[in-house]
Each structure stands twice: as C-alpha cells, then as structure tokens.
Fold these 3 entries.
Entry 1:
Amino acid sequence: MINKLIENIKKTNAPIVVGLDPMLGYIPEYITRQAFAEFGETPEGAAEAVWQFNKAIVDATYDLIPAVKPQIAMYEQFGIPGLQAFVRTVDYCKSKGLVVIGDVKRGDIGSTSAAYATAHLGRIQIGQSTFTPFGEDFATVNPYLGTDGIKPFLDVCKEEKKGIFILVKTSNPSSGEFQDRLVDGRPLYELVGEKVAEWAESCMGDTYSCVGAVVGATYPEMGKVLRKVLPKSYILVPGYGAQGGKAADLVHYFNEDGLGAIVNSSRGIIAAWKQEKYAAFGAEHFAAASRQAVVDMIADISGALAAR
Amino acid sequence: MINKLIENIKKTNAPIVVGLDPMLGYIPEYITRQAFAEFGETPEGAAEAVWQFNKAIVDATYDLIPAVKPQIAMYEQFGIPGLQAFVRTVDYCKSKGLVVIGDVKRGDIGSTSAAYATAHLGRIQIGQSTFTPFGEDFATVNPYLGTDGIKPFLDVCKEEKKGIFILVKTSNPSSGEFQDRLVDGRPLYELVGEKVAEWAESCMGDTYSCVGAVVGATYPEMGKVLRKVLPKSYILVPGYGAQGGKAADLVHYFNEDGLGAIVNSSRGIIAAWKQEKYAAFGAEHFAAASRQAVVDMIADISGALAAR
C-alpha cells in the first residue's frame, strides 16, 4: 500500500492528504437540514449529513489528491450510525482510487492489538468466510505499549499489504510533556523514532517502508532530526495550516527524492468555505471552496519544495 | 462514578473486574452454531454469538462483582455488528447495576479527544436532542500526547460524573521499551504517574479521584512505587492470572483502607470452562464455570489482602 501511496503522490504531484474530520459546525446548514428532514435530529440524521458532506468534498477533490485521512473519533461520537458513515466514507474514497489513512490511534497488546489490526487493516474469518471490518489502507498507531503493541499490526501489514503510521512527535502544544523528556541525553521521541526505524526495516515496500511516522508540522526542528532517524519511513505531518505549521518549515520532512512526507490538512480544506479567503464561494459551493483550498495548499507546498 | 465503583466494591467485597473480551474461540460451539443458524456465518452471526456469550456470563456473575471491562477491540474486529454487540453489552451490564469500564485506550488531542470523550463517556447534542453514543462509565486513555489529550476527558468526567483510567505501566513484556526509560534518573512511568496524580487532584469524588491509573499486575515492584505516587487514584490492574500476576504480589496496589485497586481478569473468567480446573462444568455450563472462577478469584485476592 505504501507503493500505491507513492504512486498516487507522483501521479497527482501532491504530497498532501485531506483530513475528513467532519464536525457538524463545518457542514452547511442546507445539508444538515435535509438530512434531519429525512432521518430526524438523531445520530442517523447527523451521520447522513456527515456522509453527504464528505461525498461532496471527495467528488470535488479526488482527482487532485493521493489520499484522505478520516479521523474516526469524529464518527465515533455519533455512535453506530457515525461509524456506518465512516465505513461508507472509506469505501467511497477507495472506489475513487484514493488511499485511505484511518486516523484511529489505536494501540494495545497481543491479541487485542491483533484485533485492532484486523478491524482496521485486515480481514476476519467467520466460519468459512472472510469479511473486511473497516478496510482502511493505513492506520495510525500509538507506541506507548512498545513492540507488543506494534508487532500484530506489522503482521497484518505484511499479510494484507497495508501500512501504519506510528505516533512519534505529535503536533499539539503539550506533546513535549512526555515525548521531549530526555533519556540518556536524547528526547524520548528520538528513541521512539529509532524503534520505528527498526520496525520499518522489517516491512519494506519497493523504496519506502509500510511503517511510517507521525511528526507534527509545528515542530520543524524535530522533524529535521527525525527525517534522518527514519530514512525509509514516510512521515505523516499533521498541524499544517490551522494548527500553525507553515510550508517553508516542512521541506525538511521530505527526502532528497522529493518523497518521504505527506502533509495533512483537515479543517483548512473541509471547512474552507467558512474562511474569509474562500467566503465568496458561499455555503452552497463549499465543495468548490475545498477544491480551491487543495489547489492552494499544493501550490504552497510545491513552491516551498521547489525553493529549497 | 468513582463513588459508585467504590460502593459496588464494598457491597460485593470483591475488588475485581471481569474483562468481557470475547474471542470466538472462547464461545462454546453450540452458541456459535445457533447464532450462525439465525444470522449466517457473518459478522452479524459472530456478534450475536458474542452477545449471547456475554449475557450468560453477566447473568451468572453480576451479583458477585462490582464491574466489567469490555475490551472494544474484540468487538471492533467484527465491524459495525460487533460494535452493536458492544453497545448491547454495555447497556445490559448497566441495567444489572454493574459499573462498565470501556477498555478503549483512546487518546488524541483537542477536539478529537473531546469527540472520543463524548463517544464513550458523554452525550452528543444533535439539534434540540441529546444522545448517548456508547455510554460506558469509565474509559481507559493513553497518555502519550500529554495534557491536550487528557483535558477533554476530564471536562466530560466532571460534567457527566464519569471516570478514566490512564495507562501508566502496562502489563506486557515490552512495556519497558519506553515506559521504563530513565528521565532524570527516574523511569518515565513514574513521571506519567505524577502527571496522573496532578490530573486526579482536579477531579475528586468523595474519597478517590475520577482519574485512575492502569498498572500491570506483572510489575509488582513498580505497582508499589506507583501506589505512593498516586494516593488518590484507583489502580486498574490487568495481568492477573493468565498473564502471570499473582494475588500475593497485588496487595501493594491497595491502600491501607483496603481500597484503591481493582484487579481485572478476562480469559481466566470468561474462558474458565476451557481450563482443566473447571473442565467438569462442560461447555454447556460455561457460565457456571465463570461464576466459580469469580468465586475463586475473590477468595484468592481477599486471602492475600487478609494475610498482609
């Protein structure tokens, strides 16, 4: 799947991923109104609004982008109907040729981690048949529990040709509370990065590993260090745009080959219509606003990469 | 909810929690066969088998125990029908007066963490109505992202009178890879423990905090230290029984008041009928075997506590 991700990135010339993290507040009122008219002011109604919103954004952007990253928490908050909208979104994005990174940040041990890996990247055997529970192409994974938590994901990745991105240095202000603490004079995130590099070696695609890392755009100096620690891993970069990460800061997340990183934007794309910059589109053309925001983001990042 | 957990523990005199982590291999064949006959060899069929299995175990044990801990991964692996069985299990356990600890190990930042907190412990407003997505009483949470990941859970805990258990030192063999690394001469898990103590202070019940910690039974020396670091937190202790933790090792996880810890057993209880010790019950009386295993576990732990 890492090969397909790279192929998609080369084809679109866009090392970006659109975060499908729909909050009800991002969805134009006419969509919510229609969904509520059909399903009531219920989780089913909210899930329908989320699905219609996602579908419009995917339809308006899929030819420009290599991948999407739905954040499962935003669906989980609507309970079962929300997760049905998640599955529908994953399936639809895959039908459009997009690589789907499930931002699930799961992490447990042994058979439990194996169950998560099965749920998100694998297939489950029931009697004589096999089923695909959620069917993402990649999943994000939390490293706090160590190798016991990662190994079951690696097994599924190898078997199903899927991939994972492991949290190394997250984009939030308090990420340093534990991640930056010095161990033998070096920050914990570097040790986690080294471990990720080790796991990455064990699961290689053609040029990059199926094991990537999450490194926030908001810590560019650390990104520069981690790029070297993780030569064969793709870096998934959250925190661009709304969280403050700038394109010029992100060039060091990429390798010399122009590959090796994929920058996420969620709110900056899917809620573009609510920004002053794209207000002229109006609520009714929210998806066109998202498309323009994608075009602008690609230009911003490509420009920074060309200028380095 | 911490008050209710303590009340339940005092009432049953049983500081234990039954882990409802059903694997298909634990379920007697006659249950699976009947579920498949009704729903086919499908995720729906598997989910029905899981639900029937859970219900029988809850019916056979609820009067002896204060709480259950369903592991969501084991349901998530069956996709949407699996999660429906999870919801059904949560609801049923609550109707029986049990406290439900959702072992979900979620953890993200900001609005995403808030969405997880809403999903598992809170309510969501949709239009003029509010809904309860999953409705657990407690959730387990991963600390790797720092305060930004925890704060939204604390907010929901305060508002809804719910609770969380934060991973501090996990029971698995490789938990030391990161958790034991020395920071200023002290292991990372101690620093995480101190932070948990800080968060715990901000969300107190009558005698204990709504913020607890997960500390594995397999590391009793560390449990002893963390007991002191976390005076006001309940410690949720996985790793008893099947993973190797022994009752005598666990006495130091408790405070002088005999409270402060709750020991989990999953497989040891729910798959008791597959152990030699309880084989006489036979597959058909698997729930009675679980009840006997609960009785034995309570005696084992009470005995160790009485002997200290």
Entry 2:
Amino acid sequence: MTTRQRLDVDLGDRSYPIFIGPDLLSDESLFSPYIRGSQVMIVSNETVAPLYLEQMQQLLPAKQLASVVLPDGESFKNLDTLNQIFDGLLEQRHNRTTTLIALGGGVVGDMTGFAAASYQRGVDFIQVPTTLLSQVDSSVGGKTGVNHRLGKNMIGAFHQPQAVVIDTNTLNTLPDNELSAGLAEVIKYGLILEPQFLTWLENNMGALLGRDPQMLAEAIKRSCETKAKVVAEDEKEAGKRALLNLGHTFGHAIETHAGYGEWLHGEAVAAGTVLAAQLSERLGWISSADVDRTRRVLEAANLPLAPPAGMSVEDFIDLMAVDKKVIDGQLRLILLKSLGDAVVTSDFSEAMLRDTLSDAIS
Amino acid sequence: MTTRQRLDVDLGDRSYPIFIGPDLLSDESLFSPYIRGSQVMIVSNETVAPLYLEQMQQLLPAKQLASVVLPDGESFKNLDTLNQIFDGLLEQRHNRTTTLIALGGGVVGDMTGFAAASYQRGVDFIQVPTTLLSQVDSSVGGKTGVNHRLGKNMIGAFHQPQAVVIDTNTLNTLPDNELSAGLAEVIKYGLILEPQFLTWLENNMGALLGRDPQMLAEAIKRSCETKAKVVAEDEKEAGKRALLNLGHTFGHAIETHAGYGEWLHGEAVAAGTVLAAQLSERLGWISSADVDRTRRVLEAANLPLAPPAGMSVEDFIDLMAVDKKVIDGQLRLILLKSLGDAVVTSDFSEAMLRDTLSDAIS
C-alpha cells in the first residue's frame, strides 16, 4: 500500500499543496494541474540530473520541455549561475506563462525560485526537493535567493511555488552526511515548538538513519507542518518566523568562516544549536540537563556539536554582525526558554555571548 | 511662493505619494517620514552624482549615509552593475531596515528599485527621478529590473517605492534633446486618454520648452495622474496598462535598428506615435486633420516625425515580430479611435501596416 500525504500551506491566494510519499515522480497527475502554459523549464544540477532528470522529463510528454543543469554546490549559488537559468529561458524563448521546476536540493530550489520570481518580473514554479534538508526546510516558506561573496542569501525574493512534490524515494540516493544534515533541521522543529516531536525523534533516530520510508515520511510531514504553521502566521518574517533560525546565526558564521561548502548547512546549524542552548543555559533559562539532551539528539543523528577548530570568538562576533537579524546595531538570537519553546531575543549581554563562545571553542 | 503638488498612487497597503515642485531637494521633511531606519544608500550615476549627490547627502545629516555611483547608460543596466549596489550595501553592512534612494534617470531608477526588491528579499526605496522621462514614466508603476543580452527588462520585479520626489529644478541641467524626449511621453498621455490635456500641451509647449517651472510641474503632475490611474486599474499589466505603449512597438523597432543609444527612447516613440496615428487614419478611425494635429504637437516639442532614413518596411516587420505584444503570432498595436482615446488592437491587415510604413518612409 502506498501511503501518500498531502499538506496545504495556507497563504490566501498564494496557498499551495505539499505532496509527500514514495513513487511520486511517477505520477503525472501531481504536476499537470499546477502547470498553466505549454512551456516547462526543469532546473537541476550535475549530481541530481543523472539520477532523476530523465524520469522527470518522461512525466511531462505533452509540454515544450527544456532543462538547465547547473554545477552542484553552495559555491555556485550566485548571480552568475542564476544567469545560466535566464540564458536558457531566453534562448528557448520562454514567455510569461512558463513554469520552472526545481529538481534538486536547497541550492537548486533557492536559485530556481529566485529565477522564477524575477524572470519577466515573475513566473510560476514547482519545487521537487531531493534532499532531506530541502524537503523539510527550503521547500516551505517561499524564501528564494542567491549568495553574495559578503553574505549568504543576501539577494532574493519571497516567491511561493504552485506546488511541492516530495518523493521519499529520492532519499535512497542521498549520502549519509546529507541525511544527517537534514535531520539537524528536523530536530530544530522539535526544539523550537514541538516537545512531543522532539521525544518522537529521540525514540526513532535509529529508524530514520536506517532510512525507514514510513518514518522518514512522518518526520518530513511533521517538519513541514510545523514550518507551514509558523510561515502561515508570519509570511514576511516580521516575528514568529524568526524562530525557524534557531542555531542559524551561529551556523552562518561557521559556514562563512569555513568557506561555503566545507561544512554542510545542517552541520553548521547543529553546532550553532548547541551554542544557542549553551547561551540559554548561561541565561538561566534551561538546565544543563537540557543542554545535554540537545547535544545527545544531535549526536545521535551523527552531527557535529562544536565549531571548527581555529575559529575565534572575534571571528564569530565579526561574522554575526552582518546577520540579517541585526536591527539598528542590536544582535537578536533565537534562544530556548525550554526544549520545545524558543524565543527571539536580544536579552543577553555581549559578555555572556563571548563567554559562551569562548567556552565552546576551548 | 512655492507651488508644490502631491499626488497619491492608490495601491492598497503599497500606496505611496508623489511630490512635485521646485526646491524639493532642499526639504528634508519630504524624505524623513519615508525612511524607517538609520541607514540610507543613495544610488546615482556618473552624470547625475556631480550635480546633485552632495545636495542629497546634506539633506539627511542624521542618517548613516552611503552612496554608490554607477556608470551612466542603458548598456550598464545589467546584473553585473546591479551587483555593485549589493557590494556597497554589504560593505557598509546595511540591514533590512535600510532605505535606497534612486537619484537619476530611468536606468538608475529601474536598477535601484530591483536592488531594493531583492536585497535581503526586499527593502524600502525612494525614487528621485532627475529626467523628465523618468519623472513621468518609470517613477510610477513599480516596474523594476535589468536587461539581459537577449532582451530588455527581462529580469526584474514589481516593487513599489515608499515615495517619489520630483524636484523640477533638476530639469534645468537636462540637455534639450532629453527634455524633448520626455515630452514625447507627456504627449502620449494626452493622446491615449486625456484630450483636454492634449489641448493644454498644444497651448503651452513654448513654456514647457522654456522650462517654466510651474508649467513643467503641471505637465508632470497630469502625466503621473494619468499613469497612476491606469496602473491602479491594472497593476500587473493584464490589459489597460498596454495603452501606455502607444508608439512603442514602432519605436522599439527604430531603437533596435538604429542601435541602442543612437535614438533616444522618446524620439523613437515620437516617430512611432506618428506611424500609429497614420495607421489609425488608414483604418478610418481618425481624420487626416487628427494626424496633422498629432504631428504638429510632436514637432512643436522638437521631436522627429519620421523613421530614420534607410529603414525599410521589411526592417520594421522583422523587428516588430519579436515584440512582447505579439501573442500567438498575432501582432497587437496601440491605435487611436480618436485623439484622447486609444485601444489595443490587432484589427488591421498586414497590407495596411505595410502601406502605412511605405508611405512614411518614402
């Protein structure tokens, strides 16, 4: 029996469905209702295209199909690579009724979404995320964009897809470290808002690492539900949505310092989440037992718990100062009031932050 | 006495005011209500910056001010130049509460607007257009973007400014041919929708060419009112907004044939407008007296009335076939039912179009 789930992200006239389950890339009926014109451009990368591009193409025989295969990796998530998508669209004379399909991980999704947001000032797109990270994170919420050499995701748009199709079979080809990196974001949902889901993850981490399809589908669905709930309340990231960035301000500093691609995003988020928990403990908000529990669940997912060797307190302070969550010079962080209850706060001193970083580094 | 006008563009929660009058670049109170943070980035170009950048900077002494000066010209309206704006914003550590100010003509406005639309997924911007063309055209409507080597304005966003400040003094430094080119678009508003404004322009062309500040402010205000009315009805260009393209399909063909920069946009539109009037006469919609009247008002503004020598009927037909207004192989044009009443139509034969072009060229 095929277990297929459907989740609806409620955003008024920009609402869209998320389909989750095995064998979805064999089901044309999931796509055709969301493609309004005759033109489709599939955007993928050199790693994913050999695995799934042909399958995707065979799904849409009636369409005027084109495809662009980008180089793989965060280091190519920039305006130059974005322009390759525009080149393809214009060379194939795609018009305003075209639909872009993002077939790949978060980088492909973010770039394809931004290309869709800005080609002829906005066309449709469908997300087909093929990594656990993109399935639980970047395919929900409408954030699209590219990096700049001075900061991640600094150029982009909010642009909602017409639909998201998550075929859990694609996880069978995902490397182990990328599966773990995705689990960092899954664990995050438990930590910020869903204590029961956190417990579920602690109990089922072995099955998830063993790629049990039913367990993975359940984890993806609950993650997407949590994110969809937050996003529906706060589409443009004025308040609650910031909670989704638990560990990310520290994590972005780690990624930038290491050089894009050296640390997987989820790995950096995991180490950043431990730092957020430690600062929360220093504030007296959570116990050392809570910090240990946070570390254990991340460790069970085979994730790193500390920043890279050689990264100094000053490195962190400098890199965190350009973070998007700085407002008028005031750094705000996502910290934990308890496990399953996060807040956005600037209610900490720079000394506390420095001490936390210093302890973690030594 | 200073005569200052205010016009409100009604777009729901993205509504904004347009201020028009002399000496506005000396009035801080026009800007400060529309700047929500402490950071401001002024974007200008090599031609306009020496004239007005310092004045603009002195207006905002309390702000953390930065500026980027771009090379001047349509040939620099691309992703590479756009990236210079992002470089400046990130080097100066501007955050999501920054405000961009576009100080220059249409190219500066389009690029600054797109930078504002996409920097950190959207920040505020204020338009300070310094050419007549940008004051009556590109500062209203929210269209932003850059060119791609395969097409003009192919990459962009709809992004509304917080305010538009039109200081008519800036027209004192505008070259004569650019003033005339701007008047081509002003006359267009009369021809498509406002017969009384057309008469007003016929009666006051001398004063406008003499740069009478009060008359210029009136012409700008009535042009912006007309465009704001059309845009408010049709923000995303589904229907009525196409009327704003009177003369533009012919004009684009002239610009492309001459090579961009050889003919000013407004000059090409003027010659295109005469062609549109002549085809309308051939259809029996307007009289030869109406065509003469159209020619006379454009001639009074020192605008060209005929295509460049050496451009053939075939040149026009080929170049017009790639226009964005071709839908399913059918060329649509903006033609005149009477002076002050334009329609979008494909209700003409290719023979009629060819005869009109042939007569105009000989």
Entry 3:
Amino acid sequence: MTDFAELNPPQRLLLGPGPSPVHPQVQRAMAAPSLGHLDPELLRLLSETSELLRYAFQTKNELTLAVSGTGMAGMECVLGNLIEPGDRLVVGVAGFFGARLAELAERMGARVRRVECEWGRDLGFDPLAAAIKEETPKAVAIVHAETSTGVLQPMDEIGELVHRYDSLLIVDCVTSLGGAPVTIDAWDADAAFSGSQKCLGCPSGLAPVTVSERFRNAVKKRTTPVHSFYLDLELLCRYWLGDHLYHHTISAPLVYALHEGLRLVKEEGLVDRWARHRSNAELLWNGLERLGLELHVPRVRRVPSLTTVRVPDGVDEAAVRVKLRDDYGIEIGAGLGPLKGKIWRIGLMGHGSQPANVALLLAALGQILGRD
Amino acid sequence: MTDFAELNPPQRLLLGPGPSPVHPQVQRAMAAPSLGHLDPELLRLLSETSELLRYAFQTKNELTLAVSGTGMAGMECVLGNLIEPGDRLVVGVAGFFGARLAELAERMGARVRRVECEWGRDLGFDPLAAAIKEETPKAVAIVHAETSTGVLQPMDEIGELVHRYDSLLIVDCVTSLGGAPVTIDAWDADAAFSGSQKCLGCPSGLAPVTVSERFRNAVKKRTTPVHSFYLDLELLCRYWLGDHLYHHTISAPLVYALHEGLRLVKEEGLVDRWARHRSNAELLWNGLERLGLELHVPRVRRVPSLTTVRVPDGVDEAAVRVKLRDDYGIEIGAGLGPLKGKIWRIGLMGHGSQPANVALLLAALGQILGRD
C-alpha cells in the first residue's frame, strides 16, 4: 500500500477557466470554528448569504440560495426542478457548456431542440427566435459566459422573446457572476445558476441558484415529483429561508467561504468589480496582441473573466501549459471539444483579476514562446 | 440592507448527530494552496483518497470514490445510478434515514416495499427475508447505523440472503464509517455510501461511495440513462480513476480534508479506532446511567458513535439543549419524527470521541438537570 504522507500541494497561480485563486479573507473565513447545520448562527449566515446572492444576481427573487455542490449541480438543479419527461426545451449550444445543458436535459427525458453556432460566436437573436417560435418550449436555456469559447452572449430582448411564447428563461452564469454584468431581473430571466470558484473568489462546492415566481409556479404544476431530493429547490428553500426543516448537512466552511466571498463583492461594489475585471482583461488582451498572439473572439463579444487565445502554428500547446505550470507555477486551461489543441483559456476571475497576474503571465508566456 | 460584518462564529463542541468536530490536522490541510481539478497533483490525491476509502470501507471495489456533496448526495447517487422507473426495492425502515431511502427511491419511480420496525429496534432477519422472498426486488437498501434512533443493524447473513434472490445489497454507512465495524466485502454488500462529517473527522461536503462489480453490471443493463449527470458513477470513476476526463470542478479544500481525515484513520488503524469509539461510548453510557437517565436502545444494539437518551418526564428537552449550547458551548441533537421531544441524540464521532468530551458533557448535563 502507498505510504501516505501529509499533503503538501504546490503553490499554483490559478489563471485557468476556474477554480480561481481563493481570496485570503475567504481562506481565513474557512478556518473559523465549525457550526452544526441547524445552529441559529449558521442559519443566520444562510439568510445573509441569500441576501448577498440577491445583490450579486441583481434580483428580488425570494428563492435565492446555494445548492451543496459545484456549478454542475447548480445546472442540474435548475433543469431537474423544472423538467418532466417529454417537456420541450430550446437550448443554445455555442460551446461545451451549452452542449452540457442539452445533454442534461435529455437525460431527464426532455425533447431538446439545439440552436447551434460556431464555437467562438454568440447564438444570435434570430435563430433563437425562430426555434422558440417553432417549438413553443417549456423553457429556453442559454449560457451567458461560455467558458469553453470565451464568448459573452448578449442578453438584450431574449427575456421578452421567451416570455412572448409563455416559456421560461434559464441562464448559466457560472463564469460571469461577479465578473461581468449579470442582471437577472433586468434580463427578465426565470432561473440562473453559478459556481463559487469563478468570479466570487471562493473554492468550489456551493452553487448559487436563483429562480423567479414564474419558475416556482411551473414547478408546482408538475405531475411527477422532482426526481432529486438533494436538489429539490422548495425543500432547500424551506431549510435555508423557511422553518429550517433539516434537509442535508450543509458544509460550514463552504458557507463561511461563500458568505465572505459575497461580502467582499458587496464591499467592492458590483459596478467597480465588473470594471476591474474588464480593465485587467483589456491589459491581458493588449499584452497578448503585443506578443503577436491572436485572440479567438472579437473584442465586443469577449468574456472579461475568460480569454481564449489561439495557439500559434507549430507550437505544442500542451508543452506550453506544462512549462507554465512546472517552471512558473501558473495554471491556464486547454481547449475543449473542437477547440482542443487550438486555443488556451486564460481566466482572470475574482481575486485572480489583478494587474500583477497579467504582467507575470505575459512575461512567462513571452519567455516560453521566445517572444519576449 | 443588512450591515454585513466579517463572520465570527462561536466555538461549539459538536456532540450532536453530525457534523462532528473537525480534526485540527484536517483543518490545517484545508488551508493548503488550492489546486485546479485537473492538476496532476490533485489527481494523485484523488487516487490516494480512493485507496484510503477502500481501506475504510474494507473493500476491494475498484469504483470507490467520493461524490461532491453531503451524505444525502451519496444516498441519492447510489439509488439513482441503479433505479429505473418501475424497479422493485425492499427498504428497511427502522428510523428517519430508512424512511429517506424509501422516499428517494419512490421519487425515482421505484416500487418500494418497506420493512418497518419500532424506532429503537433493528429490522430483524425474518421480516427482511419474508419481504425479499415475496418481492424478489432489484435491490435491498438498509441503514447500518440509524442516526435517528441510535440502533446498529446486525449485518450477519443479509448479504447471502439478498444474493440468494439475485438482488443487490445497498447499505447506508453514514454514521458508522470510521466509527464502527464496516466491512463491505465481508458483508458481501454491493453498494455503500457515507458522509465526511461524522466519524471521519472532516467537514461535510464529500460523500464516500463504493459499489461492487455486480452493481456496475446492473447499471450497465439499464435501458434509460442515469437521470443525474452530476452523480453518474461511471463518469465520476472516469474522472477520479480513469483518463481524468473533466466532469465537475471538485473542491480542493474538501479533497485535502478527506485525504487527511482518511490518512488519520489509517494511521490510527481501523480496529483501534473502532475500539476508541466503543470505549468512549461506554464511558458515556455508564455516566448517563449514573445520572439516572435511561438509554433508548439496548446495549447490544447501540451505535457507538451515536447515543440516544430518553428525556426524563417533566424536563423541557429543547431548553436543555439551548442551555447546553448557550452556557456550555455544546451541541447535541433533538429527536426526529416519532422520537421528537422524547430523546436527545449525542454523537461521539471521529475527533469528537474523546474521554474529555464525555466528562464535560456529563458534568454539564448533571448541572443543568440538577443531578450532579
């Protein structure tokens, strides 16, 4: 059997597609004494976390909380509470995570119409509108910031379009929440989910979720129970915000982390935080171009927290990532699906969005590529 | 809006039904630098964690890992990977968590036959055998240590019984793993799940799961996909132990915690650890009896990590718990379901199983009840 040593993980600067660097104050918060999941003090923190999440999501939705899992659990939660076998869904597939939305919905028995586009573009209003008109689906699910391509989907008028057909709008905000303008009520979105390990500066493990009254009413009209007990939103809402009936043993250190991460979002202010992500992204974009590298997405559509760069011809993309990791202690991400081997993915998320990180990464990349 | 202060949770000695006190070395491990979910060093830790879990479960099952959620996610994972709508299940309901197993299975569309008994007794072999013979179910699910009653279910011959009818044996080991003899292969069990926050001395957030080849073969024979992507065991196995294909962003601090918690289990040795839980439980049992309190379960059936004590006539059970919490900083648990108001639940789990904790709790209880 292995001789298990006490763990001693290396220091890494996490500039990939997430997780992002944990904010030092979040790290400190996690070390606070653990509380039971029914302790009045923990329940108070849940209530505050819910209020802080409403601010981060820019929503008045009562049912705003975090499910005990990663962003993928958030996605599964939103889809699973709504979908019954046979339901029709329109899903925007502009990359890997749009494809995941479609796959999850199909596992749940939904009939899915995919609206597709090239990986590196946004969905476009007209193809979405045409599909929705044809399908009159129960819901339309799209990704706001597609982490696989670095494209930010414009949200203008999509809510109005969806509701014209009595459908519900579901938005994946995993990579945008806290790093780019997410405005659930202004979008008129009915459900959104995110992760804690991207622009909120926390470790992964809790997935923020918010749903509208319209969404809750649609769930009430189900003829079958929600398949998942663990992710049943009304039970979770009762535990978080109602009479606190025991549901599951929420992880105190993860609650502390999310509470502190969101408190820091509030302290910085969303507008300033979005601007910081934007200005550091521009520093990065300009620097990459000065290195002679080509960005995968037109500037007007770029996600500020996640930049995709094309791998130059003749360069071994994996070797560059390994060198960055082993010689410089920096993690960046590889491409997924059709973009595998073709792009790198660079995240400047949450506490990771800092000019010093941009400077170090550009310098390291320059050295490795011999372009300094 | 609330004026959100930096958090400062009170110190609590967690002697309830879980979470249990986090071991100081686990706490320290969580503060180690975060790694990405595809970092080779993190993947090495997952492989070691799997090996350590095999030791803790006493199994050779290849598919042994932890799902990214609490013990409830572990329960949902095991049931959800197996059950297709219409499947017949026999579920032992000797308390709240047996009832949960049945509820979850029914949500998934299973036809559930409940084998029930009084809350405070074990299921008994004959009623189980009769139900299995009658139903010839796809699987039989029982709780090893019923956290709501404090009863340890004898496991002798149940595996043989279940397999005689070509059925699969699923065991809930949430409160027993690491605190009482759990021997998956010797039991001939096909699936088991647990939580990190009980006798493993970690915070909650990861749920150990192990399944046999027989179980995996049954899953392969499904005619519908597993409903949950997030809890799909074959995908999780591929990420943890195969080619590490991206599945979800596992939480590095929770992995560090579980790895360290399990390393400490290995260091102490399972037999010594079981003996420690047993001897501290006996200290508690004897002390409670000296205080004139009545235990809810006959000694031979007691869970060493979770003791149920009857609330004496005329005593306000909630007031005692609040006084323990507010004046002594000690958390114990209330009764659930039919035992609400009738019992207290005292956990001596993982790092919490210490003579000093027993001494303090007995002294505090004696003072509060005026029996010192």
